[in-house]
Design brief:
Elements lengths: L21 H4 L3 E2 L1 E6 L5 E6 L1 E7 L2 E8 L3 H9 L1 E5 L6 H6 L10 H5 L3 E2 L8 E2 L4 E14 L5 E16 L12 H4 L2 E3 L6 E3 L12
Antiparallel strand pairs: 1-11, 2-3, 2-6, 4-5, 5-10, 6-9, 7-8, 9-10, 11-12
């Protein structure tokens, strides 16, 4: 007997689910802490809930913006963005950068964060982040639903052209120590996060 609760996304029982469980089910998710800069010097820094790696040859990452917000528009205008690893030590400042500000206002300054220039791109990186990925935009699209109707969701894909790594997090055998870095990840709802601090290793089965 199937004991699962089933619903269609547009018709969920709001008595049972007053909060949409979708984001809690697809969790935890890496935070897309994205910095951008245009030719006129406009800088933006903001966290995105929908972010992940999408390929490794060449390495690519993507973030998705609900609405054409400053980060997405600046990334498309400049053709560049930088992803910064949000850690437990930077969690409060990362959260501060989610505050809605007028275009041109500097989220990094409000959060007390130093930005350093990129090496391969014009977009800056967060100085205190232990890992940053400089990216060149290679693809962008407005998403559509199953009926082909455009929705207010914008996907931006970047190829990684430069990598910054804190040497303190490189292990003796040359691995980046994610556990020690303690990345902060998005959980289900607006005020919920996870911290990656436990490593589980499983050998891949042989053919």
């Amino acid at each position: 007997m199937d004991r699962m609760v089933f619903y269609e996304p547009a018709d969920r029982d709001r008595t049972l689910f007053p909060h949409d469980p979708f984001k809690a089910i697809v969790a935890p998710r890496p935070i897309g802490w994205i910095s951008t800069r245009t030719a006129d010097g406009t800088t933006n820094l903001a966290p995105y809930s929908f972010f992940n790696a999408v390929g490794d040859r060449p390495p690519m990452v993507m973030f998705s913006s609900t609405g054409m917000k400053d980060t997405a528009s600046l990334a498309l205008e400049s053709g560049e963005f930088c992803w910064n690893l949000a850690t437990l030590a930077l969690a409060e400042q990362m959260n501060t950068t989610s505050r809605p500000l007028a275009r041109g206002e500097n989220e990094a300054e409000v959060a007390g964060l130093e930005l350093l220039p990129g090496r391969m791109i014009g977009a800056p990186r967060v100085a205190d982040s232990p890992a940053s990925l400089e990216c060149a935009v290679v693809h962008s699209t407005r998403l559509r639903d199953r009926h082909g109707v455009e929705v207010d969701q914008w996907l931006v894909v970047g190829e990684v052209v430069g990598v910054h790594v804190d040497p303190a997090l490189i292990t003796g055998d040359g691995r980046f120590d994610t556990r020690v870095a303690q990345p902060v990840m998005r959980a289900g709802y607006a005020d919920e996060y996870f911290v990656a601090d436990t490593m589980v290793r499983m050998a891949r089965p042989s053919a």
